[in-house]
Amino acid sequence: MIYQVSGNLITKHKDFVVIEVSGIGFKITSTTNTINTIKLEKKILLHTYLHVREDALDLYGFHSTLEREVFLLLIGISGIGPKLAITILSGILPDELKDKIISGDISSLTSIPGVGEKTAKRIIVELKDKFTKIEEGSLGFSDKLNSKLYDDALNALSSLGYSPQQSKQVLNHIANGKDDNKHNIESIIKAALKRLNA
After folding, report:
1. Which residues of 92-102 are buried (b: 16+ CB within 10 A; e: fewer)?
2. pLDDT for 69-122, tens place per residue?
3. Is the pLDDT assigned to residue 148 strictly greater than 70?
4. Which of 38, 60, 67, 112 has a CA 20 to 30 Å removed from the CA of 75?
5. Tens of pLDDT, residues 57-79
């Protein structure tokens, strides 16, 4: 899988962007939230997912790992493909979607274009438990810790032999804590190791 794409923004459209990487222009379909976040700066980074079909290779990109993680959960539900998942995440922020699912708010979900009552119920049934157990994963991470710092810390802890689940639990604890060690990779890793070895 193409995990992320970093390059110069060539053009920005309603539902996709084109990023130049080493002379190649990648068309990356994105949510409205991601596209609105992208500024016309020289270089951007998107966390991506490559959807492989018999007749096409579609690349989807997100400004945060949380948005990509929720996207992957959505397309894991029967009847929800990447296009509908993008539509859903264009109509609601990941944190808000999580809250609506946990509370079982069918009417809010059906207000999103393309989501009928059956689909809304299916989303709630399949994702409610996953969202209520966010301490076991990285969901609910929000913006309390920079997504790049989070990924770097996760990779560093994995290279030290800790499981992704262990690492995510500790990093989420740090992200939700009151410490001032969230903006420096060395401090984050030190704090994580301290908790892991406690």
Report:
1. bebbebbebbe
2. 899 989 988 889 999 999 999 988 888 888 889 889 999 899 988 899 999 999
3. no
4. 38
5. 899 999 888 899 899 989 988 88
- Band of the pLDDT at 24, cuts 50, 70, 90? very high
Q: Any idea which residue has 């770097």 for tokens?
A: 152
Three-state DSSP string of the chain: CCCEEEEEEEEECCCEEEEEECCEEEEEEECHHHHHHCCCCCEEEEEEEEEECCCCEEEEEECCHHHHHHHHHHHCCCCCCHHHHHHHHHHCCHHHHHHHHHHCCHHHHHCCCCCCHHHHHHHHHHHHHHHHCHHHCCCCCCCCCCHHHHHHHHHHHHHCCCCHHHHHHHHHHHHHCCCCCCCCHHHHHHHHHHHHCC
Residue 179: what pLDDT?
56
Under a CB-based contact definition with an 8 Å cutoff, are residues 128 and 101 in contact? yes
Nearest to 51 by CA among 70, 35, 75: 75
The residue behind tokens 């990023």 is: 19
